[in-house]
Design a protein that fits this description.
Strand order of the largest sheet: 7-8-6-5-4-3-2-1-9
Strand content: 15-25%
Distance between the termini: 32 Å
Structural class: alpha/beta
Largest sheet: 9 strands, mixed
CATH architecture of the largest domain: Alpha-Beta Barrel
Length: 413
């Protein structure tokens, strides 16, 4: 069910933004639609998700109607602070969005499109568990306007999937990809490395299996042990080993080498997109929705526990689906709190997010008192010297990607 919500100021019951806020019509706008339901809770997961026994009165069959009420509220709130902007990207995340009937996802998308509009060529993504993807599901999603499926593969090795409490059958990943391709959807697959008992050979087997699927995009995330999860408790009791940092570094280097050789380019530390042969332009297969987060654009997060950012204001919804539904049934905002970060906090966030991108971070975006540390990071082999000197941008080397958190600390502490 995830960690605690951030501390912040109380959010008004009507959801109105501060009177001083005005949106910039040139800033892209995105929508995130959270579906907080899972059949089984994975041992490593710290997301705001709920199995059937944890819903305590919330109903999956009423969820689409509840979320649509928040879409109606968002339209009213955003109309008050400037002209509505059509959505550049839409992302259904979870949880497992495809646990809901595809018609419910379609209704949610149609409601958001009707409220805000959507740009021609917008990216519309649905996350999916491989076992929930059928030709009928993807056909309904395509007809609704979805054009990208993000499939939670995680691993191709059964004992690794078991260590992560993943219940899908490895062969169903290929079936899901084939169904998505037949419907004309772009395909991304997600991988996790560093699970208890996973060897470098296991990881390379998963990489090869992912590449054989010929996806457009691959995400590869190091396993992080979150407090309060089943896996954290198992490690604390000595039942399974903690992730090995050196082995995870070897796994990352292997991923980058193999993906690059297969025609993928990294564009964020944990994300690679298929590149068009011979093209000097960025890959069209990058996740535009995630780039909106990393670049600090505006988005509204719909659903329990979802976070939003509009014109420098951040807020977050109550976590439990029952509390979320109750607020909206009373025609109240589901926001639990909000904040307006000051200039120092915004600088920290900009460095934290944009330094992870292949396009890099402008040195001008670093606090003047810390710009001298760029030279030290170049000497340590963490920043590309040509980019810093020629383009005045901080771009991470491969070694820098492995030590990205250390780069951020050097540029902000």
């Amino acid at each position: 069910m995830g960690g605690p919500l951030p501390e912040g100021d109380p959010a008004p019951s009507d959801g109105r933004l501060p009177s001083t806020v005005r949106v910039d019509a040139s800033t892209p706008f995105s929508a995130y639609l959270h579906v907080p339901f899972c059949r089984v809770r994975c041992g490593y997961c710290d997301f705001n998700t709920y199995t059937a026994t944890e819903l305590r009165g919330a109903r999956q069959d009423e969820y689409a109607d509840t979320l649509i009420r928040e879409i109606d509220l968002a339209r009213r709130v955003l109309t008050d602070v400037g002209a509505l902007r059509p959505m550049d990207t839409v992302f259904f995340g979870g949880g497992t969005p495809t646990l809901l009937p595809p018609g419910d996802l379609a209704r949610m998308l149609h409601a958001a499109t009707g409220a805000f509009g959507i740009r021609e060529g917008a990216e519309v993504t649905v996350e999916a568990n491989p076992d929930t993807v059928t030709p009928e599901v993807v056909d309904t999603l395509r007809e609704a306007g979805v054009n990208r499926l993000s499939i939670g593969m995680q691993s191709a090795v059964p004992h690794v999937l078991a260590a992560l409490d993943r219940t899908h059958r490895p062969e169903n990943v290929r079936t899901a990809v084939q169904a998505a391709r037949a419907a004309g959807l772009a395909v991304s697959v997600d991988l996790i490395y560093g699970a208890p008992g996973e060897t470098l050979a296991d990881w390379e087997r998963s990489l090869e299996a992912a590449l054989e699927l010929e996806p457009d995009h691959i995400s590869a995330y190091a396993l992080i042990i979150e407090d309060g999860t089943k896996l954290a408790r198992q490690i604390r009791r000595g039942e399974v080993p903690a992730p090995d940092d050196d082995l995870q570094a070897d796994m990352y280097e292997s991923a980058d080498r193999r993906l690059t050789d297969a025609g993928f380019s990294w564009y964020e530390v944990s994300n690679w997109a298929r590149s068009d042969a011979g093209s000097a332009t960025p890959s069209p297969h990058r996740s535009r929705h995630n780039l909106a987060y990393w670049r600090g654009y505006d988005w509204w997060g719909f659903g329990p526990g979802a976070h939003s950012h509009v014109a420098g204001v951040r807020w977050w919804n109550v976590k439990h689906p029952a509390a979320y539904a109750q607020r909206l049934a009373l025609e109240e905002s589901p926001a639990a709190g909000r904040e307006q970060p000051d200039a120092q906090a915004r600088t920290l966030e900009r460095v934290l997010l944009r330094s992870r991108l292949a396009e890099g971070l402008s040195i001008a975006d670093i606090a003047e008192s810390h710009r001298g540390r760029v030279a030290e990071l170049i000497s340590d082999g963490l920043i590309d010297p040509a980019s810093a000197l020629r383009d005045r941008r901080v771009r991470l080397t491969l070694r820098g990607r492995l030590l990205a958190d250390a780069v951020v600390r050097a540029l902000t502490d």
